[in-house]
């Protein structure tokens, strides 16, 4: 199989879907490019469980699943019920099998996935906003409104990483400059995870980066 991630077919989605679900943009494509550059490494891990939190349209996990094939189980989570529904449709349209769950971060999956996730992908709501812009009643605001420093949602995930990831698990996180890369690296370091930038790109006013984290081996 080629080490290339093809952009999934999203022709089943229209502008009405994108009123409630994040439309793939530069950040989505940067994550796909980052993962594509990591395919040889990801294959070497022989993953059995891949998880994407915040799947939106499903573009990222579907692309990854098409590339890696049925060697592992794919779980997709989104807090937005419309996104969960759309992710299911995207998987179906592209003939891949994803387990789609509508919940907040790992939610009720925690006992099931504890120490088992070999690969985790998160393109979070990263835009710095007022906390009150994180409106649970506005599905589309949930896709971008990141609260203080754009960190509110991702900061809730970081302490869960050591619990959910397998011993050789790898975590890919998309951030922007305002999220404070150095501080994120330090937070993860406090959990004995080391990170580095694997790809970065300026897109309009946003300076996007994908960080790769692995457990510090003792
Ligand atoms: C920037 S969008 C990324 C969507 C897609 N992965 C992509 O790259 O195009 C962020 C996604 O995270 C979801 N999300 C926000 N907060 C979440 C939470 N607490 N738990 C799970 N998903 C969340 C949003 O609904 C949205 O679909």
UniProtKB/TrEMBL annotation:
GO terms for cellular component: eRF1 methyltransferase complex; nucleus. It is found in: Nucleus. Its main location: nucleus. Pfam families: MTS. It catalyses: methylarsonous acid + S-adenosyl-L-methionine = dimethylarsinate + S-adenosyl-L-homocysteine + 2 H(+); L-lysyl-[histone] + S-adenosyl-L-methionine = N(6)-methyl-L-lysyl-[histone] + S-adenosyl-L-homocysteine + H(+). It comes from the Eukaryota. Keywords: Methyltransferase, Nucleus, S-adenosyl-L-methionine, Transferase. Residues 50-128 form the Methyltransferase small domain. One of its GO terms (molecular function) is protein methyltransferase activity. InterPro entries: DNA_methylase_N6_adenine_CS, Euk-Arch_PrmC-MTase, PrmC-related, SAM-dependent_MTases_sf, Small_mtfrase_dom. GO terms for biological process: methylation. NCBIfam families: hemK_rel_arch. Methyltransferase that can methylate proteins and, to a lower extent, arsenic. Catalytic subunit of a heterodimer with TRMT112, which monomethylates 'Lys-12' of histone H4 (H4K12me1), a modification present at the promoters of numerous genes encoding cell cycle regulators. Catalytic subunit of a heterodimer with TRMT112, which catalyzes N5-methylation of Glu residue of proteins with a Gly-Gln-Xaa-Xaa-Xaa-Arg motif. Methylates ETF1 on 'Gln-185'; ETF1 needs to be complexed to ERF3 in its GTP-bound form to be efficiently methylated. Belongs to the eukaryotic/archaeal PrmC-related family. Heterodimer; heterodimerization with TRMT112 is required for S-adenosyl-L-methionine-binding. This is Methyltransferase HEMK2.
